[in-house]
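ingest -> validate -> predict -> emit
validate: passed (alphabet ok, no gaps, 179 aa)
predict: started
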Amino acid sequence: MQLNLKYLILCLCVVGTCASCRTNSPIASYIATEGKDSIRVSLQKVKLPQRDIANIYEGVSRLNWNSRAKTFTDNRLKTLRTYQSVSTPEFWSAEDARKFGVSGLMEGVFKPVEKNHNLLYSFSEPIYVDNGKQAVFRVVVVAGYNKILFDGLAIMEKRERERERKWKLVEKVFNSAVH
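emit:
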């Protein structure tokens, strides 16, 4: 009986750890690579909604310019569209900020960045496609007094090398409504 209880506790710990790593890893990797030159990076407490992700991914075509993701496939678009009405928790927690490696949480919507902050990041929850091998999420990066540096999608791909799983940025897709 005692062995079964230990086994159950071990399984719950492993499942809990894997679930939390899967949720936060792509965003933490994104911040580590994209925000590496910043003095201080903060996280906007309010999460961006997932409803715009499919539209940004699909893009628009104007004259000789197309904002569609280079990694575009109809199957991925179909998966992303299913998340347009999914509700997720509305706020990032202090624990999320710690896992992402940012200096703190900021409240309010695009509040001016404080003197000791360099960049303010806002994210949606990642949507996992291709059996969890890719993560797609919306990113807005603000500097100074509401100066939007980037609004669009980050498409991350899980790369596995000898016991190491890393998320690598494959593509950034600009939101054609803003850029």
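The CA atoms of residues 51 and 85 lie 7 Å apart.
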